[in-house]
Amino acid sequence: MTEPPSGLSSPDVEVKSLQLDDRPESESADSGIGDGDELPVPQQILISNVTCDSFKISWNMESRGQDRITHYFVDLNKKEDKSSNKFKHMDVPTKLVAKAVPLPMTVRGHWFLSPRTEYTVAVQTATKQPDGEYAVSAWSEIVEFCTADYSTVQLKQLLLKAEAIAGRMLPFTVFYRNQQREYFQPNSQYYRSRDAQCCRMLPSVKDNSGSHGSPISGKLEGIFFSCNTEFNTGRPPQDSPYGPYRFQIQADLLFNQNTNAYFGDFYCMYTSYHYVIVVLAPSGSKGDIFCRGKLPALDRSNNCFLSCGEEEDGSLSFRHAQDVILEVLYTEPVDVSLGTVSQISGHQLMSLSTLNAKKDPSCKVCNISVGR
C-alpha cells in the first residue's frame, strides 16, 4: 500500500510483507503470535474503488479493544481456477501487514496485484507487543473481488513504449486476412464468423491474447486484418499463420475520413518482435462507442503505427510502422464481394499465431509498472 493518487482520500499506509502460515478461516495467522482474544474481528468487509493494481478496503468491528489495535494483517490471494493468470509472481508474499489507520485504506502494488484477476481477501486486527511479536484477532470472513482492466492512463504508458520502437513508416494499399479454404465457401459449417447467405465476414469477440489488462480482450467485437508489407517488395508477405487463402481489400474501404483509430495493445510472445493492435471503428458505430473513453485515440493522419493521409488530388495514402507487427481490428462486418480471395504461395507459420497468446511478463520493452 502506498500513497494514493490525488483524488483518493484513503490514508497513506506503509505495507510490509509478513510471512504467515496457511490457516483455517477461524484461526489466527500463527499460533506463535500472541493471544488476541480481546481484539475485535473485522466484519462486513467492503471492497471499493478497484483499479488494475489497487483497491480500497474497509470493514466494521466492535468497539471493544479498538484502542489496542496497532496493525492490520491482510491476507490477499489469487483465486485459483483453470483460466488463472499463469504469470503471477508466486514468490511474492500475499500476506501483508499495515499500520492501523482510519478506514478505508488503499491497497496498492503491482508486484502482487495483476489486472483483470480474481482475488480473495481476509483481514485480522493486531497489536504489536513490546517483544516485537503480535497479538492477533481471528480472521474475518473471506470476500472475493476482481481487479479492473487497464485504464487510459496505463494504455497511454503502453502507447509511449510502442511509439518508441515503431520505426519508420512504409506505404501499403490493401488490408488482408488469411483463413482456411472453408472460411470462404458459401454455407460452410466450419466457421461461425461468416454470414454465408449475405457473403459477409462478421465481427467476433476478441480473444485473450496480448496484455492481461487490455480492455478489448473478451469484450470488443471485430475482424482482424493485417497490413504489414515485405520491405523488399512492398507487398504483403506470402507466409501466414492463419491459412493459405487470403482476402484482400483496398485500404480506403476500411480506413478513411469516416473511420476513427484507437490504440488497443502492445505486447510480445517471448520473441524479439512486437505486436501492436490498432482498432479501426467507423465513426458512431457500436465499436466506436465502445472505444471512446476506454482506448487512446490516434490521429488518423499522424501517428506512429497506421496512418491515412490525403494527397493533393484528393486520394488517400496509407502507411504502416516498419518495426512492429500490426494487428488491425475492424469493428464492423465486411462484405466479401468488396475484395478478392486467392491462394498464397507461402507457408503456414503457426508459430506466429497470436490466438490466445500470452504476453511475456519479463519483457522490459512492452511491460509497464502495473504488470502484464
Automatic annotation (TrEMBL):
SUPFAM superfamilies recorded: Fibronectin type III (SSF49265)
Gene Ontology cellular-component terms listed: cytoplasm
Family matches, as InterPro entries: FN3_dom, FN3_sf, Ig-like_fold, PHYHIP/PHYHIPL, PHYIP/PHIPL_C
Residues spanning the membrane: none
Ranges of residues in domain Fibronectin type-III: 41-150
Compositionally biased spans, kind Basic and acidic residues: 13-26
Protein origin, superkingdom: Eukaryota
The protein, known as: Fibronectin type-III domain-containing protein
Source organism (scientific name): Xiphophorus maculatus (Southern platyfish)
